[in-house]
From TrEMBL:
Pfam families: Imm1. It comes from Polymorphospora lycopeni. It comes from the Bacteria. This is Imm1 family immunity protein. InterPro entries: DddI.
Amino acid sequence: MKFAVQWGRNAAVPVATVEELDTVLDHITDERRPQMVNLFNPDHGDPWDEQRILQIGLGHPDRSFAYLDPDQVWAVDPTLEPASEPIWFNYGGTPTEYSTARTRIHPATARQAARDFLTTDGQRPGHIDWQPMTEQV
């Protein structure tokens, strides 16, 4: 299976294995600024046209997020208290504020969600609690 990883204003980078995915995610993390990252299957058409897409936040030392579309659910670690203030992530070249309710997972959890998404051909990662968008701030 082949997926694509896209962040900032960069073109999508193809990945087919967890090792390739980790290499790209390491590169994004090494940029040292919080980035919103898209992971999708380019064979399923336009990623913004009702295709299943996983968005994760990388680059913040302590916090991240994971959002799954079109399910419109956010990952939440119920043992992790909300951050003290919103966190800004680069969303397609635009600094975007993510609320404290949406950044309630650790970066390692977001990375594992990406690995699971890749290895299950785009299924919802099962190791995370997901909450509907309506329950978020």
